[in-house]
């Protein structure tokens, strides 16, 4: 309970929230922080059981459309905020990575949006790894036009020259999805945004080090203005903000949470010697 709830710009008092991937890492830190902001009810959808203070846990395998649909059916009542946060790295393979990171995120959002009242919101955890979307916008739009789960994944497997690094591509798709879907949703008062973190020291980091290599990860941290890797408690506050009424005029935004990495890259200030 905050000391003075009336001063909490990011209050979740009376709000019912769904968090995917709330068992570990960023999602687990988010659950803890939502509690500090007086959230009324938290449901977590995850393949693993969360240890945090959640009201309902629905075991869900987001790589399986039947499991996503079962979770949608099991969720009852009003949903004020959907935090679509679960994700996997490239090691999971093209199909699973695109299924969990994109197909399930979209299926859940599309399946739940009618239960989100005016003033409610969906916040995705995308990534700065998806910043390269402008170079692939036409292909990403073609892919996002495919509604069918299997056809969507078949397209990804059939286009390795587009997908390339599947994790980065999955997050490019999510950044574009946020911009595509938010224009329609705001007309009925529902905001859709994402936050785009730099590398974060969570259980997923071991998979990133394996799939991308230590050199790229360590270099990216040196480019950041503060020179340290983020931890989950650096990322949970921007998520809480994005999902709160304090962000009520923010829609269709992919918010960088990268300590200046993208700014350094965009303005030619990044030192690439660490990659040599
Ligand atoms: N760690 C980073 O460096 C980093 C950087 C940018 C963005 N992100 C994104 O942040 C989000 C959270 O990742 P994290 O770093 O906290 O990692 P994490 O591994 O700690 O958390 C991921 C969560 O997703 C759940 N999950 C994985 N596969 C699932 C499945 N098939 N069905 C249901 N749940 C499943 C896991 O059980 C876990 O609770 C992801 O979307 C990730 O892509 C992470």
TrEMBL record:
InterPro entries linked: NAD(P)-bd_dom_sf, SDR_fam
GO molecular function, one term: oxidoreductase activity
Keywords assigned: Oxidoreductase
Signal peptide: none
A Pfam family annotated for this UniProt entry: adh_short
PANTHER family: 3-OXOACYL-(ACYL-CARRIER-PROTEIN) REDUCTASE (AFU_ORTHOLOGUE AFUA_6G11210) (PTHR43180), SHORT-CHAIN DEHYDROGENASE_REDUCTASE FAMILY PROTEIN (PTHR43180:SF66)
Family: Belongs to the short-chain dehydrogenases/reductases (SDR) family.
Protein name in UniProt: Unannotated protein
Lineage of origin: unclassified sequences, metagenomes, ecological metagenomes
């Amino acid at each position: 309970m905050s000391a003075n709830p009336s001063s909490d710009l990011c209050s979740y008092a009376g709000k019912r929230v769904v968090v995917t991937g709330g068992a570990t890492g960023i999602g687990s830190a988010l659950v803890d922080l939502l509690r500090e902001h007086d959230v009324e009810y938290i449901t977590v959808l995850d393949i693993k059981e969360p240890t945090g203070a959640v009201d309902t846990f629905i075991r869900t395998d987001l790589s399986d459309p039947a499991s996503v649909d079962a979770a949608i059916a099991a969720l009852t009542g009003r949903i004020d905020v959907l935090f679509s946060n679960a994700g996997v790295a490239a090691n999971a393979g093209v199909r699973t990575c695109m299924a969990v990171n994109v197909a399930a995120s979209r299926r859940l959002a599309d399946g739940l949006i009618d239960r989100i009242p005016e003033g409610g919101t969906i916040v995705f955890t995308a990534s700065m790894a998806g910043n390269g979307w402008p170079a692939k916008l036409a292909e990403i739009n073609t892919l996002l036009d495919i509604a069918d789960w299997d056809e969507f994944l078949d397209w990804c497997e059939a286009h390795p020259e587009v997908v390339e690094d599947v994790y980065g591509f999955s997050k490019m798709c999510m950044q574009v999805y946020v911009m595509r879907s938010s224009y329609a949703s705001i007309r009925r008062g529902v905001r859709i945004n994402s936050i785009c973190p730099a590398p974060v020291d969570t259980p997923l980091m071991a998979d990133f080090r394996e799939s991308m290599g230590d050199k790229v990860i360590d270099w990216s941290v040196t480019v950041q203005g503060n020179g340290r890797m983020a931890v989950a408690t650096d990322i949970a506050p921007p998520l809480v903000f994005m999902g709160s009424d304090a962000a009520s005029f923010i829609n269709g935004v992919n918010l960088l949470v990268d300590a200046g990495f993208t700014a350094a890259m965009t303005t030619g200030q990044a030192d690439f010697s660490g990659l040599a």
